[in-house]
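Progress narrative, work stream C.
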Amino acid sequence: MEDSKKLIFVGLLKLAKSSEDKYKNGDFKGALEDKKKVKVILKSPSCDKEVKKIYEEELANIYLSKFDLINDYKKILSDSKRIKIKNYLEKKSIAKYKIGDYESAIKALRRSEKYSLKIKDT
């Protein structure tokens, strides 16, 4: 991986871990802000498919749990249904954010991310 891609990836990973730490400490608004920064970077033209793929693999490791019901449910879902659920959760997150319910907003956003990750066997 070239240096610029590595810098982008390291930045994404730091933001993801920062968001996770803030979430665990109850700073839901801070966790949401970090997630928003990650989304902006992922949508930028400087972030290519290789960086996105590696980031998703690392994100899956952050969210890895022995008892992951979403991962189990994804195994029986079609791709189109999984995308619908992901989009619904993202819209729900935005709606909750607008009314100031940051805890529900970050929970919905985290769930939507889990639906977009590749299925991992535990």
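Work stream C, second folded protein:
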Amino acid sequence: MPKKRTGSIRREREADQLADLLAEAERLGLRFVVAEERPRLVAERGAPPAGFLERLQAMREPLRDAVCALERLARSPEPSPGVVLGGDGVPSLPCATCGGRHFWAPAHRPAAFGLWYCDTCEPPPVLPLRRLSLGSQGRPSGNG
């Protein structure tokens, strides 16, 4: 079994921490809104506990990226321009823009929805997502 790269492990850990932080925010009656490319915390039930705010501050950068990515994904979907989809709605050829063979899609949408992105042209945010790689024969592999 191949070893995971350190960056991959760090991203997975960061994604887990973000998921926990967002779940806690929801339990506390907090929500995030994006204004001028920056997420803002809206408290619907009073000020959050100091410990939560400290964890929020520690995760500021990845949280900003995740909230902005979620806001972007909430808009009407626009497929990546270089991704060529097959009849099953998943990438079937290398990216027409860069020739990349690795793709990702948001995990909260069906894989066959057609909302796939090239991993090179548009690197994935730190969110749960589906991955797909085209092998040398053009056959997909991954969790798409």
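The first helix runs from residue 6 to 27. No further action is required on this item.
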